[in-house]
Model the fold of this input.
Amino acid sequence: MTTNIQEKIQEELQGAREACEANGPGSKECAAAWDAVEELQAEASHQKQEKGKNSLQQYCDDNPDAAECRIYED
Done:
């Protein structure tokens, strides 16, 4: 899934460059195209962060009251 989003980002980057070249850097079309690129990059970053969970973290997400998942404060 990550490679698919990376391909989409590359497509949107090309589209943003073309929109800015055709309509000018201050145009609404240019701004909207770059917004689409930023949204895809944010989604890719979000997906990357979620992949970092290990098995204990996943278990604790599903079972927050389990003894292994308790957090003790000093």
